[in-house]
Design a protein that fits this description.
The protein is mainly alpha-helical. It is built from 3 helices and no strands. The mean pLDDT is about 90.
Length: about 60
């Protein structure tokens, strides 16, 4: 969740975010906009659950 997606992605890919440092490089597969922080946070939390991750995998299957 960020107001500046490019800056956030750069922080992840340069190792400035400790929790994601070991899984680099990161790439953006989805961006969504919400009217307020609370709604955005609820969506982010859902996408990080097992169901949310499965939804992302099904929606964005990589075609060889």
């Amino acid at each position: 969740m960020s107001q500046n997606v490019d800056k956030r992605l750069n922080a992840h890919n340069t190792g400035k975010t400790k929790s994601t440092k070991g899984f680099r490089p990161w790439e953006i597969i989805l961006t969504e906009e919400y009217p307020d922080r609370i709604t955005a946070r609820k969506r982010e939390k859902y996408l990080k659950t097992g169901y949310g991750k499965q939804w992302l995998k099904n929606k964005y299957k990589q075609v060889p």
